Amino acid sequence: METFQSLLAKKLSNALAAAGLPDAGELTPATDPRFGDYQTNAALVLGKQRGENPRELAEKIVGHLNVGDLCEQPAVAGPGFINLTLRPGAIAEKTAGILGDERLGVAETESPRRIVIDFGSPNVAKPMHVGHIRSTVLGDALARIATFLGHEVIRDNHIGDWGTQFGMVIYGWKNLLDQRALQQNPLAEIVRIYKETNALTTSDPQVREACRQELVKLQGGDKENIDIWNECVAFSMQDFEHVYELLDIHYDIQCGESFYNDRLPSVVERLLKSGIAEMSEGAVVVFFRDIPELADKPCIIRKRDGGFNYATTDIATVDYRLDDLKADSVWYVVGAPQTLHFKQIFEIARRQGYQADLRHITFGSILGEDRKLMKTRSGENVPLRELLEEACRRARKIIEEKNPDLSEAEKIDVAQKIGIGAVKYADLSQYRMTDYVFLWDKMLSLQGNTAPYLQNAYVRIRSIFRKAGESPVATSLGGVREETGRRPVATSLILTNPAEINLAKRLCQFAEVVPQVLNDFRPNILANYLFEVANSFHTFYEACPVLKSEQPARSSRLALCDLTGRVLHRGLDLLGIKVPEKM
Asked: In 2-110, which ranges are continuous DSSP H helix?
């Protein structure tokens, strides 16, 4: 099913050809509804290119623009914009078609790719903290949307389970461990012994050397140290899984840094042999002398002491994802401070001859009310598990006030959907590069651009059908419908009130919005669209009686309610947000 935007873009292309003009500009939704529904700047672009009057070019294009089946007469506005306003009949026909479509008009991509998405990536022996929200929920939303669009997605949690900190953890385990504390709260005890050992290394050279020896033994395969390391990894994974369960996030593979250890020597040898890397002052280094921004920023892949580092591991990871997993694209959802690192890694991959699309998807920071990085009062990172549980507690308090008659099981379920949804939406509704302030009252509000506002719109729709004594699936239009799967095919919609025309038009745009998200990895486009849908629905609900209206308007409006609920449900699901049936 083609969207209005794609149909009109084709008609514009045909008009340009008929007018003897090349394809130019773009056709986009109008920025202001006063100017219609879609507009094109083709005449402005061509006018600049050809040194001609853009308004005259616009009139020439309009003379060949055959859009009568979809739009009113095109209008030329301002310096040469061409504005297009959809006809209510075309909107009704398109909306009726979407009603019978499980995918709500969204077409699957014609060029599916195998995409590895690297997101989350917590460190073992440390609890996940508030800083992990952005990578985790952004990566999950992109994975959901890419999958829905027909790509094959592999979700990879690249866990930090190797490195110098384990020398300190193992020393602390052997010398400072409290077994009872370990049984009560394993991760907290591991963090305590790590911090205490770290403090000792700054004042006691003997402890520092002992930690180094423990690390050497671990890297050498010492059984006792490997056993301790395995326990630390298991305890950490247990804690991570609880957080992922709360967030409803799942991974296909969780290959920690340790997974690549055996591959590192051959990575270095291969890069040396190919001339991509070279010896420099005892280390193995890749230089980027031909790239101005990297010319003075070489990448060390083997240190003087023979040790490997993150760069070596990440090169091995690229090899694995492209050679073993056969990925066409790899998306790294990792903070902006790693920009230089990934530029180096991607350039090394290019020099090895890899053709895959490698993307570093960066994001901003979460700030506290003081507009500084969000911390606890003691200056520590805020544990993510505690923050999510606090969100559920706060949501539960609101539910107790708004709907105390819900059963205990319902209260727990609804509180989790609202609390977790609020945290996710607060993040995903922002442009990913923007820093944002974490405010509980704002994100849990039933007013404004929040998850609870959108969830409440869905709940209101479900309430309409409960009052009607009908299920959305059983709703027919004018008493005429055919079954295709579980959805009715609408044969006619009656759109007369401006509010119902506007709502139907918005619902038709779902198929235009979803694919746009992946253009620059911006789930906020979808979030803000859903907010507009909810606003349009509330306006429609106030202006157009649904259950009290006469047939055939009643069935038509119930069908619009059904479609609105489905768009909100599907759209929020693509963002990883669940909707309750009651609030």
From this structure: 4-18, 42-50, 54-64, 88-99
